Amino acid sequence: MFLRALADPDSLAELDVAEGEADxxxxxxxxxxxxxAGKHGSEAGSEWFWAAVDADPLEEGExxxxxAEIRYAPDIDLLWQEEDLESVxxxxxxxxx
Length: 97
Prior knowledge:
Helices cover 49% and strands 0% of the residues. The chain starts with a helix and ends with a helix. It has helices at 2-7, 27-40, 47-55, 62-69, 85-88, 90-96. It has six helices and no strands.
């Protein structure tokens, strides 16, 4: 879902999420929680999390390989304003605006 949203942000409109339920979500928290759950079976956010990250660094070339697999929508980094929502993510705008 996370990678799909990077490639097609409007695909998030297909999710069954109530309005306001995912407000203020940042990309970091999704990735860190997924890593912590997969690696340690628990949530990120405590001191042990950063100790675990430091203790298990990526091998050489691993970050580049991961980054090469990610596909981004052409306007994913667009500096848009709220009034641009309908043109940037029409399905999301229709669902939540």
